[in-house]
Structure of PLIN1 protein:
Amino acid sequence: IPHVQENVLQRVLQLPVVSSTCETLQRKYSSTKESHPLMASVCEAYERGVQGAGALAMWGMEPVVRRLEPQFAVANNLACRGLDHLEEKIPALQYPVDK
């Protein structure tokens, strides 16, 4: 079985305290868009702008990211070990925000 490298960002996003916070924020954002038509058009314009800027930034950064991949892997491994330590020391990270 090939070893799948852990990604510290994915791990952080999967922590119940983080994922429940993100879900709450997403619900509030969606609710605000639905109840305020003017806000909905502003939000949609912003979302389109962010998507376009994000795609452009990734295209421009690709050569740099490829060159720095070994350093990213080392930083990711260190961050994963740090997250292991935090999860061990702070059990509350394993609970949703409401708990």
In short: The longest helix spans residues 37-89.
